[in-house]
Amino acid sequence: MAWRMARAGLLGLFLPALAVRAEALPDTAASMQFDIPAQALDAALTAYTQTTGLAVLVASGLTAGRRAVALRGRYAPREALRRLLAATPLEVRYTSDTAFTLVAPETATSAPSKARTRAQALLMAYAGTVQATLTRTLCHWQADAFGRYHTGLELWIDRSGMVDRARLLGSTGDAVRDADMERRLHGLVMDAPPPAELAQPLTLLLTRQSDPAAVCRAVQRTALPRWQP
């Protein structure tokens, strides 16, 4: 569940210190049309995940300052990703049939320690917590707008699990909603406190959904979001 962010409106979660190991999946998916210009790697990954429906978890330090080459034509998702990353040294690790991460070559070939593996598992699990809490909150607060805009969001979460600070990285298309979102997210209580190893802020990509109403219906029977005064 921690990796299925594309289905809940959180298309990508860029954790500042996350790298995982997993075997790559066979490239058996049907080909699809891509039209992604050469651009910053973060932006290219966003476009790629919007096209494929896959989710990406990647250390923000790995993508900073890197660029992706243009990708145009019909390719299977795995081949498309290889081409997109051709100008970078990064390697792909698939973590499920709907998600992948990127790692540096030295990380890909080195065996992780037990402590590092445990820390990574905790971070991956917390990604699911953030996903669930934010999806439920945005559906409850802005059911008529959820899944109908694209923006980035930074969150600082304190030891108790409360959002101490929230900052939008782009507009949702409505200046009033932008200001209201930052204000309302402040004090939001996550379903669980973050692991001590979690580097912050968390950077999330909130994207348009093909059926946002269905996403919100799926969380209607869960607990209401909580805020700390």
TrEMBL record:
<keyword id="KW-0813">Transport</keyword>
<dbReference type="Pfam" id="PF07660">
    <property type="entry name" value="STN"/>
</dbReference>
<feature type="domain" description="Secretin/TonB short N-terminal">
    <location>
        <begin position="54"/>
        <end position="105"/>
    </location>
</feature>
<dbReference type="InterPro" id="IPR011662">
    <property type="entry name" value="Secretin/TonB_short_N"/>
</dbReference>
<dbReference type="GO" id="GO:0019867">
    <property type="term" value="C:outer membrane"/>
</dbReference>
<keyword id="KW-0472">Membrane</keyword>
<protein>
    <submittedName>
        <fullName>Outer membrane TonB-dependent transducer VreA of trans-envelope signaling system</fullName>
    </submittedName>
</protein>
<keyword id="KW-0998">Cell outer membrane</keyword>
